[in-house]
Write a structure and sequence with these properties.
The chain contains nine helices and no strands. The protein is mainly α. The longest helix has 24 residues. The radius of gyration is 17 Å and the shape is globular.
């Protein structure tokens, strides 16, 4: 599952099990990316808090399926198959349009966002995500101004920025420690957006 030791749900002490119970899905399944933190549970708490608040919070105004699309895009650019497969499954479920989801995935896989069935402003956000992922030092205020010109409010630009930043963090956690999808249930997420403290996956 990974290149470092992890503690299975069944072998967790009371403190770790309580945290696992907060993040688990059906049948006590804990995503491997979360189990990677089991030797330092406080980092799991930090990871889940930022994940929930950035991607699955009630105060976000951008469609969650598009935030997931940004995550799949950033993860593809970072060559993180784990996050690509998990979050494409989530994107597909949220979008509830298999044809569109497949077309988005094809555009991402071929590195041709122009072919994606997205609005122009969404493509602008995808280009910002590309630059932020590939060469963050090249970002200039003009990139923000372009998103504003395409209709994004500054709070939405912050959402886009934070999702891109989160996925680069998650990708490096996965890639740097050899995390695999073995045993995971793809596409689960903390779907109760209205309770920021509900981290349960479904």
């Amino acid at each position: 599952m990974s290149w470092i030791d992890t503690i299975a749900y069944e072998k967790a002490d009371a403190k770790l099990k309580a945290l696992y119970d907060r993040v688990k899905g059906p049948n006590n399944n804990v995503d491997n990316i979360m189990m990677m933190h089991s030797l330092r549970p406080h980092t799991m708490e930090g990871h889940m808090a930022i994940y929930k608040y950035v991607l699955h919070h009630r105060d976000n105004t951008i469609d969650k399926w598009f935030l997931e699309t940004l995550g799949v895009w950033v993860s593809t650019l970072n060559k993180c198959d784990y996050c690509v497969e998990h979050h494409f499954a989530g994107l597909k479920r949220l979008l509830n349009d298999d044809v569109k989801a497949t077309q988005i995935r094809s555009a991402i896989d071929t590195n041709n966002i122009g072919n994606a069935p997205l609005e122009n402003r969404q493509k602008t956000a995808m280009e910002y995500a590309r630059k932020l992922t590939d060469n963050p030092g090249s970002i200039r205020e003009e990139s923000i101004e372009k998103m504003r010109a395409d209709g994004y409010k500054d709070g939405e630009i912050l959402e886009i920025n934070q999702v891109c930043a989160y996925f680069s963090y998650a990708n490096r956690t996965v890639l740097g420690l050899g995390c695999s999808t073995k045993g995971d249930v793809l596409g689960l997420s903390p779907n109760n957006n209205y309770d920021p403290n509900d981290w349960g996956h479904s």
